[in-house]
Specification:
Distance between the termini: 11 Å
Number of strands: 9
Order of helices and strands: HEHEHEHEHHEHEHEEHEHHH
Radius of gyration: 19 Å
Helix content: 25-40%
Largest sheet: 9 strands, mixed
Strand content: 15-25%
């Protein structure tokens, strides 16, 4: 029911996070003409249910939209601006559902005081600090919180400083407002503010998960925060243990792994009509099977 907001070397594939079919890349290709497009106005009289936001939640939303086409539901799924973009579009009445991989903040509530945000958690995800296999093979067996901070703040500029190869570090960071970046900031800084980005030629901002993965694969010595589900089937990339804890299913479900996040669908008021049918499908046993396909955890696995 809807709820008010309330690797030494490459690490072994997390138990239970076995892919069950389509890869993340192929699933993301489902965000095509019939299902994906710019989110139009939810008030403009369109018969389409419009969902937009997190590139992490989007593959599940897209799979569910495809499954419901046979039942006559017309659903479009877009990824404009990530989680923050989806919340903003919902707050301004442009869409019916915001896809979010971050909880609603007090700032969100204050920005849209006339919106009755109702969140429904559909599952959960682990965010990894992702490095290249070259760096992992070169000696980076895991990272501490202080080392992660040093890398993203531009204070650690060569992998040999953390036991790795003599290779420059290249940081791909997430845009402000992305759920992935918020999880990383909370791990490093707790409730404190992150410092300004470093002024370095070896630092760049990226957007969605696919873009991040492609940048990591094409850049030697790179590092980025990224959903661990997006590196399944990509052996060139490694999710390193953090504080000696790997992102296994058990560690994520128990909360031992420090960078776990809920995945949400957010509506203005309680879902009804086709929107309710859509969300209820994702919460159903059939719909919950979509989450492990993308490396995510189901509500049951999270004890919900």
């Amino acid at each position: 029911m809807p709820q008010q907001s309330s690797a030494p070397h490459r690490p072994a594939r997390p138990p239970g996070r076995v892919r069950q079919g389509a890869s993340v890349a192929s699933a993301s290709l489902l965000l095509s003409a019939a299902l994906t497009g710019c989110a139009g106005s939810a008030k403009a009289g369109s018969d389409a249910i419009q969902a937009s936001g997190s590139t992490t939640v989007a593959p599940v939303a897209s799979d569910a939209a495809e499954a419901l086409k046979a039942k006559g539901l017309n659903i479009t799924v877009a990824t404009q601006g990530g989680s923050a973009g989806g919340i903003s579009q919902l707050g301004t009445g442009q869409i019916n559902i915001a896809l979010s991989s971050k909880p609603l903040s007090e700032k969100d509530q204050k920005a849209y005081p006339d919106t009755n945000f109702v969140t429904t958690q559909i599952g959960a995800d682990a965010v990894g600090v992702i490095i290249t296999k070259e760096v992992a093979d070169g000696g980076v067996k895991g990272l501490t919180k202080a080392q992660v901070a040093g890398l993203f703040e531009g204070k650690i500029t060569n992998w040999k400083e953390v036991g790795g190869p003599d290779l420059q570090v290249f940081v791909y960071d997430k845009e402000p407002g992305r759920g992935t970046r918020e999880v990383l900031d909370k791990f490093i800084y707790g409730e404190g503010e992150a410092p300004a980005p470093p002024k370095s030629a070896n630092y760049a901002i990226v957007g969605g998960n696919l873009e991040t993965r492609n940048k990591l694969k094409s850049t030697r010595g790179s590092i980025a925060p990224l959903s661990t589900g997006f590196i399944e089937g990509h052996p060139e990339l490694v999710a390193v243990p953090l504080e000696d804890v790997a992102p296994t299913l058990e560690n994520v479900a128990s909360g031992k792994y420090p960078m776990t996040r809920p995945l949400y669908m957010i509506t203005n008021g309680r879902p009804k009509d086709g929107v309710k049918q859509y969300i209820d499908y994702i919460l159903s046993p059939e719909g919950q099977k979509l989450l492990p396909r993308h490396g995510y955890l189901t509500r049951e696995q999270m004890g919900l």
